[in-house]
Amino acid sequence: MHEERLDSHSVHCPYCSMPFDLLVDTSQGSHQTWEDCPYCCAPIQLRVEVSPLDDELTALTLGRDDEVL
Q1: Which Pfam family is an annotated match for this chain, by its short name (predicted)?
Q2: Alpha-carbon gap, residue 41 to 49, rounded angstroms
């Protein structure tokens, strides 16, 4: 993980709808991962899409753990 490639994004938990800032690591390229909500501790599924041309974040999708992203 490269700290200079961590981008902060304001998102809302798909369970409790609370807003929070999420740090996204674009150095891994496009990937899927999970992050726990800092308020309700529910597991949030994340799909991170990164452009292969310039390593910029092109899409960030959040979903419940039981959703297919």
Answers
A1: Zn_ribbon_21
A2: 24
Q: State the amino acid at position 45 in one-letter form.
A: Q
pTM for the complete prediction?
0.82
Query: Does residue 18 contact residue 25 with C-beta atoms inside 8 Å?
Result: no
Residue ranges per structural domain of the chain: 3-64
CA neighbours closer than 13 Å in the CB half-sphere of residue 37: 19
Could you identify the residue written with the tokens 């740090």?
A: 23
Q: How many residues does the chain have?
A: 69
CA 3 – CA 68 distance, rounded (Å): 29
